[in-house]
Structures are given as structure tokens and as C-alpha cells.
Amino acid sequence: MSLSSSFHLLSFQRKVQDAMRDVERTLEIERRPRLASDVDHAYGDKYALVDLTSNVAIIAYANCLERLGIDVKTLMMISSSIDGGTNKSVTLRFDMSTTWEFSKEVGVDVPAERSWEDNEETRGGGDNSSSKKTRVMKAINHVTEFHWKVKNIWSISVYSGTAFEDKKVVKSRQCETILITQSKGGISGSTNLPPIELSLTWFLEQIDANELASKFKVDIEAEGTKTPRRNDAVQRAEEFASDLRQWCDRIQHSFIARHLKSIVQAHNPAIPKPQAHTVERLMGVKDQYSLFNPILPLMKDEGSSSNEDDVENKQHSIKLRSSYIDDDENKLLLSQNDMSKLLNQHIQTLDVAISGLCTNWSSDESECLLSSSEAALSLLIGHLIDLSDQYTATMNYVESMLETQLVNAIGKRLTPNDLDKFVKYHNARLLSPIPQPFSHAIRCPGHNPVGLLTIESDDGEIECIHTHSREVLKSSLKVPLSAATVLELTGNQYLHGYMNHRFGTSSKRHQLVARARQFSSFIMIVGNMTNASTLDPKDAVIVQNKDEVIISLLLDELPTAKEFKDAVKSLSPEQQRFARAYRKMQLSSSIFGVCIVQIKPQLEALLGLPADALDKEMKLTQDLMELFVEYQVPSDMLSYSGFLENVTTQEKVSNVKDNVKSVLDVVNEEKEKQLKSEQAKTEMAMEGMLQGIAANHFVPEMQECAAPSPMYKMAASQAKLSARHRSRGIASPMQLHSVPSPEGFASSLGSPAHSSISGDVLCSAVASDEMQRIHHNQEGLERSSSSSVPSSQSVLLPTARGVDFTLIPQILDEAIEKCAQSTALRSTTIKTGHWSRSRQENLLTNPKQMQLSNDDTKRERNKAFDLLDALSRSGCFPIAYSDLHVIVAITHCFDKDVMSTVVCDNVNPIEKLECSTLILASAVHGVPARKLIGDANEVQRLAGLLPLLLQSAENNDVNTDENAAQEG
After folding, report:
1. Does the pTM exceed 0.85?
2. Is the domain of 597 the same as that of 630?
3. CA distance linking residue 550 with residue 454, whole number of Å
4. Do 441 and 402 lie in a common domain?
């Protein structure tokens, strides 16, 4: 997780600036301490600052706890019991209970708000005088009140270990008050909140019982110490701060905000009286006073002096150890006297606030439910929450300084993409041979490329991945197309090692991209190496005529060798053998293979044509592929059928063209027959439909309707025209505007139309002479497809012997296990995801992107397999014009992002990736890691950083020299 997402620097700085006014009033005017980031300091000063602020936090906690009743004698007693060897934990506990007891029932007359006047007139004696009397009358409600005697008790106690019965109560309050309700129901007899506990063990461990001084200090030499912020000591301190905050927060919400509030709200007399103290006022009592927070990451400029007179500790018995801050190495920290002044200021503000509460709130002896004790409790736990939050924020501020300084040094926040660019630049200077982009042109020597094969990564921008590559000795590769057909490839073979890295949850998308040029084509096969000489084909596709096929790659990380060992060490022997066997299978099957088969040179060899004979025969090549894929015509029917030796290339090509034309004529005749048959069926169906409705129409209308409509004639004529144009290999004028795809056209003809062309009919289209197999030209065999021509610095020379690709992951796994620094290096499997294709239907339309479903990929796979079956004569004819690319991937995993890895973990990812890269490059090239480093200075530098890796490489060199001497 990034630091900026959990820490707000500006908010923290504002809080510190507000506290600086109290600091300036407390210290001398001539000394103005500042935030640590504003003072020039060294890296070691950050450790001293963490020690100082942690000890100040411990004393501040103790100041608050003392006012909760935990006095010095209690702390000394508990700390001495721990040092005495009891090794028992010390727990602070808060308990609360409330009982309701019914007292009496009282009737109360409550005047209503409504009133009215009653006027009465009386007359006198003889003088007939009269008088008026006015009476004001009000309604009175008779209400029954229920009086309850409520007894509320809460206490804070301390106990050791599990001896709760021997607890020592340090503070408590018991009050009895009368509450009045207007209903007798809904009142429970008693309420006991669950106890709220806090372990004080760590807190007491940080106090020296002899000196009564805090003794927190980060062990810089400890194995778990990474930075001033990331170490075991600070981690335990933050855990206590978090527990302390949670303890206070539970008391504030469970006891004050909910329990006391529910009791106060239950008081409902018929004639209410105004309450001087409310729960809301009790909750906000901390905001009525300005409490000083002494946990401040302050430093002073070097050379500034302070008053050396000792300052008396005011009402607190825990002090700072002078050896931590008053030495020559910590000149930038505030002195012990200055810190004592700040701690005294903290005590003074606490005492002033508590004294004010005692004056403004009811005393403890009163019957009021809310008294000065509850107000002091609310004040202290609220301030403890502020102290714990301030300590955590101060530790984050120290780490934020490191991040800010690193960003200022570099000029930006680094991302995985930035580091990836640096690694490519660094590897180009460090390694020999250097990693190359996985971008390989599909070509024959001396010819223009027919396509391009790349693996790209998308991390904000798309670019080719860089791999460690070498060409290995040619060997026969088996590709099973079916149970009866096994393809044999004898072309070039390449081994690639891809070093992937992942920071935190970020991940890069990878994709395999194959692009073909116009009037060019090739076959791409993807799968996994099952053994040293077999590629298991998962999918295949024909890429032609500016097609762009994009296959998403899914990189799955396997557990590291160390994780695997730790997981199986407690299993039974049978379970361990099972796990090892399955992991061995996982490693072996993690080898991803991509095979490229060039169609045109293989067609030349298959048909008995000289090399480059089909270079300018674009239409002939397309017709051959159509016959092989769509109609599965045997190659014997199309190959060169001559017997003379001194025959020119053009004559051989003409012979093949004639054979192709003969087969196409048969195909087109069958299409014409089927078209006429379908047309006749349509006309007969229309005539039958018209005869059915003729009884309701006049004869002239019926005759007019019986004739084919102009639209029908145009459709029929268009179908004939399309068939004639298709027989010539071109599109009709109508098709140039709305031509369907080849797949759509084939599906519109229907499968029965294709199946009706029997093999006998196709055989009758060629010469009756027996076809003989013409061995491919020796010159064509010597041609081999190759990748794009690399620079002189990165020429890949084949090794003297072949490579068992399935052993590479196991070699990598063993090398990773030997290097303890590479525990985050994981073997990675590569699998294919969804497919998409960009295709231009004809020369006049724009390319369209289309997602390929599972059915689409299966159809493309079958087409490619049909063509491969034809090119190899069902596996009997080896394919020499192929390239096999085997990719082995490993991933270096970092738990955090780039900046957090450097700042929080104090890890240089460049050095970690150097080790991982050397392990991978050594396995790919088959040479010791030391020989891959061209610069002697770099060898010396890496020998100190990676002794295990380079030492093993040196031992391998010695063993190799000894074996060579013995053989000599």
C-alpha cells in the first residue's frame, strides 16, 4: 500500500504548527525548534528522532494513566513482578454494571396547556344592579409516575496473568439515583457490559523500574530493522498505541455514548426539569479545554544552545534517559531540559482541565449520574486517543520524509513502467549478450518478411517484451495433429527467457501478436512442450493477407521453491512424493511454445518446384491453399508431373498451374450443376405456389405472375456471373461492393455441395499418368526461415548440442532455491486467453476487428491442421521451413509498489532484479552468471551483493576447466 493513501501530510503539518505556539511559549524565545523535514540531518538522526518521540509518547501515556488512578507505586509493583521472573502479562480492565429496583408508584397532576374563561353575571336587590365574575379554567392530566432506584457502578482495575480475582481496583465510582418513567415495562433488572481490557505488558517493559525512566530504543543491528519506521520495536509500539486507542474508544462509545445515554433518556418525569449536564456535553468535554500534545517530531539547527539548568519534573515520576538525547551524536534533537519543559506543559494543561471539571460538574459523592468523575474519564480517554493517533502519525511522518527526499532526488514518483524502462537500459549495459525485444520477422534469407511475430506488454503503453534469447541446435520436433498424423518440423529453434516483475497488486497485460503482409501467409501453432521433442498444439491459425491475430496471454505464478518446501515439510512421505511429482509436472508444462510454418517455401518443396518459384505466383498460391483447405485435394494431384531433367522453372510452374486449373474446372462444373439444380428447384417451387393461388385470379394475371420476376432473373443471372468470375479467381462487379467473406461464401454453398465432389471426379481432371513423388530441391532444403537480422552485438549462435526445454524450469527452480535473496522469484506458466483478429475482407474495405469465440478458434484450428496435413503429406514429408520459439517465464514479486518497496522495505529493486535476471540468463544461455557480465567493475560490485550466485558460478567455471583438462 502506498504511504500517501494512509497518511495526510498537510493535515499533520497543520496540527504541529498549531502546537508550535505552545512550544515557543514554553521554551526560550531565541530557540525555535522546527519540523524535522525543515532541518538538515543525517539518516541516523531519524532513528534518534523515533527513539525520542516514542519515549515522550510513553511518558504522555503514563501521565494520563496516573490521573486515571494508576499511580507510581502501582507501576513499580507491576514492573517488579515482571522483572522478578513471573513472566505474566499485566492487564488494565474496565467494568460497569447497572441495577434497576422499583421504588414506588406516584400519581401526578399535570396542568394542560389549554385553558378557557367562564363568565358569570349576578344581579342585586331593588336597584337592579349586576356584577360579572370571570373564571379561568384549565385542564389537568392525571399521570402515573414510576420511581426507580438506579445503582450504577464502574471501575478500573489492574491484574496480573489470569488472576482476575486478585485484581487491584485503582479507580471506581458508585452512585444511586432516582429515575422516573411513565411506563413500568421495558426496564431490565440489571445490565452488565462486557469487560474492556488492555494489556499493559509492553508499556511496562519500556519503563526502567530502578531509574523510573523510559527506555525505548530501536535496535539498528536487528535483523528485522529495515528503516526507522519499519522495525520490530516501532511495530510493537504502534500495536500498543492501536490497542490503547481501541480500549479508550470502546469505553467512550459503549459506556458513555450508549449506556449512560440510554439511562438518561429513560428518565421521563411528568413534569420535566432542565438538566445541567447531558451526555452530549460529557462527550464534548475534551473540546472545552486546550490540552497540549508533546509528541512532536521536532529538531533544532546545529549549533543552537539551550539552558543547561535542570528542570524539575512536575507531578510525573517517569523521565527521559539523558543518554538517549544528550550525546554528541544527537545534537539536532531537543535537549532533555527542553523535553522536560514540554512534558511539564502537558501535565499543567491536564491538571487545569481536571480542576475545571471538578468545579463545573457535580462531585463524586452526589447522586447525579453524570459527575466530575465521568467528565474526567471522558477527558482522559479522549486525550489518550489523540496521543495514540499523534504517535502513529509521527511515525508515518518520519517515513514520509524518506519518501519526499527520494522523490526530490529523482524528480518524480516512480511507477513499475518507469522501473521497467530503467531495467532495459541497465541490462543493455550490464549483460552480454543483451536481452532483445521479442519481435521476430518471418522470412527466408534474402527475401522480404512475410509477417511479424511479437509478444507485447500493456502497462499504460504497448511495447515488446525483452527476453534473453539464443538459437539452439536444430533437432526434429514432433507436433501431433491427430492420433494418426504427427507433424515433423526440422527448422530453427529458439529459447527465450522472459523476466517479469510485479509490484503490489499491479499487473501487466501480455499478448501474442502475429501480423501478415499482403499476399503473404504463414501458419502459427501455439502450445506447450510436453517433452524434449514434442509440442502439444493447443491452437493454430492461418495468418494471411494483412491479418492481425492477437492472443491474450495469461501469466500464472507458481509458489516459490521455499514456499513449496515450507508447505510440504509437515506432510507424510506419500503426500510429499505426490506434491513433488505434481510440481515437477507443473514446471515442465510451464514451457510455452510458438511455432511458425511458412507456407510458400513448403509448397515449393511439396510440389517439386525450385526455390522461389512461387514468389510472384500470388494467384496460384491462393488457389493451392484453397484446394488444400477447402476441398482437401491430395498434393499428388497438384504437384509437378514431368519427368525431364532439364526443365526450366517456368515450365514446372506452368505444369502445376495446369494441374490446378484442371481441378478447379471440375470444382466449378460441379458448382454450376448444383446452381442449376437449385435454380430448377426454386422455379418448380414457385410454379407450384402460383398454381395453388391461380383459382382466385384471372388468367392474364396468373400468366403474368407465373413468369419469373425481374428481381428473380437478376438474382439468377448474378449467381451465374459470380460462378464464372469465381472460376477465374476474381470477384464479380457486384462482389466488389458487397462481397461476402470466403467463409461465408463456402457456408452459403452448403456442405453437401462440397462433399458431392468425389475423389474419382477430381482424379479424372488430371493426366492419367501415375503421379510420382518429386523430392524437393536440395537448394530449397538449404533455405531456412529466420528471424529479423539482429545487430552485430546480439548475434545468436546455435549451441553445440540440443536443449531439453522441459528441464529449464527445473534448473531455474534449483538456482532460485540456492539464492536466499530470491525467495520472491516465482516460476510462471503462460496460457492463452481470448483471441481477436483484424481482417480486411477485400482491397477496397477497411480492416475490421472481431473477437473469435471458442467455435471460431476451433474452426481456424481445423483449417490450419488441414493445411499442415496437406503440406506434410499426412506427416510423411518433413517441414523444414519452420521456426520454434520456446518461452520460459519467471516473475519477481514485490509486496508493495515501487516507492513503498524502496521507502518502507528499504529494498533496492534494481539489485533484486539483477539477481533474478542473472539466474534466468544463466539458465537460458547455459553459461555461468559471471560470464554474462562484461564489465569487471560490475563483477566486483555484484560479487559483494550476490555472493551465493557468483560463487556458484565461479565453482562451475573451476569444475568445467578441470573436466576439460582431464579430457585433454
Report:
1. no
2. no
3. 10
4. no
